[in-house]
Amino acid sequence: MRVVETIAECRKELSKLRQFGGRTGFVPTMGALHAGHVSLMEICRPQVEISVASIFVNPTQFAPTEDLSRYPRPLEHDLELCRASGVDLVFVPTVAEMYPPLAQTTVSVSTLTTLWEGQLRPTHFQGVTTVVTKLFNIVQPQVAFFGQKDYQQQAILRRMVQDLDQPVKIRTCSTIRESDGLAMSSRNAYLTSEQRSQATQIFRGLAKSESLWQAGERSPAVLEHAIKTTIAEVSALDIDYVAIVDPETLKLLDTIDTGAVALVACRLGTTRLIDNLLLGNARQIVESD
Ligand SMILES: Nc1ncnc2c1ncn2[C@@H]1O[C@H](COP(=O)(O)OP(=O)(O)OP(=O)(O)O)[C@@H](O)[C@H]1O
Ligand SMILES: CC(C)(CO)[C@@H](O)C(=O)[O-]
Ligand code: BAL
């Protein structure tokens, strides 16, 4: 496995790896890797000849009030996990490499980025779409792997590659969970042990809507209420939103025809946690290319 820090080195290594042809798969991350990230790398590897990961805590997707400075950066451990996952190349650029002082170009997606996470983090998705476009331009993958946990992010990136004719297929991979159901997330490291056990209530809320769905419930209002009241049993959890939305447009649904996604965001102390659940045929949408 090669680790490179500059765009020039990354391109050079990629052209060596590509001399015999083959498809390139790409897993972009912000590091502090856990089993969720490892699953993306393990799903990527058998599908391509050349697998690439990136580790970059992208400053432009953090608001000034957010956790950029305290975001965990255990680089050596991250590289060990990449090596164990069989990745060929890891790109670990510096901020100066990705954003030279004269940089002034951004990529933005409109309506989808104004909803949900975008309402609470108004500058966040423009940072994501800009850095992911830059990474796609540098790595030039045929296929890139993202987690379902960040549901809105993958929906926006799917829109972006279609709208800008970027020649990359987006694959969305299932959320990996702790044994009590909490979605794995680098930010879980911020939780105290008490908060860690409280956090699992988010999954209990989603599981409640799943069992109602299985029993035939199709009212978005009933499903939303069930999630909210279950989460509210733990008073330490402050709900930012619970919404039953269309899997593609992320707009609120009045009725559910065939599928929906339940989106949840909560605050627990100073930590924000997000999670979601696919209902009905929503899986077909996230599994489409
Ligand atoms: N539990 C998970 N299961 C599957 N994929 C995941 C999981 N958590 C994160 N990912 C995916 O890994 C990729 C990199 O995400 P990132 O480095 O931001 O990790 P994260 O755990 O989501 O961090 P954060 O806590 O900051 O949101 C994204 O595509 C993200 O959706
Ligand atoms: C896609 C991403 C690597 C862009 O910085 C980030 O938003 C993430 O880790 O989900
Ligand atoms: N996984 C999403 C990255 C972020 O919250 O900044």
From TrEMBL:
GO terms for molecular function: ATP binding; pantoate-beta-alanine ligase activity. Beta-alanine binds at residue 61. It comes from the Bacteria. The keyword Cytoplasm applies. InterPro entries: Pantoate_ligase, Pantoate_ligase_C, Rossmann-like_a/b/a_fold. Its EC number is 6.3.2.1. It holds the Pfam family Pantoate_ligase. It is found in: Cytoplasm. Keywords: ATP-binding, Cytoplasm, Ligase, Nucleotide-binding, Pantothenate biosynthesis. GO terms for cellular component: cytosol. Gene3D superfamilies: HUPs (3.40.50.620), Pantoate-beta-alanine ligase, C-terminal domain (3.30.1300.10). (R)-pantoate binds at residues 61, 153. Its main location: cytoplasm. The keyword Nucleotidyltransferase does not apply. PANTHER family: CYTIDYLATE KINASE/PANTOATE-BETA-ALANINE LIGASE (PTHR21299), PANTOATE--BETA-ALANINE LIGASE (PTHR21299:SF1). NCBIfam families: panC. Catalyzes the condensation of pantoate with beta-alanine in an ATP-dependent reaction via a pantoyl-adenylate intermediate. Homodimer. This is Pantothenate synthetase. The lineage of its organism: Bacteria, Pseudomonadati, Planctomycetota, Planctomycetia, Planctomycetales.
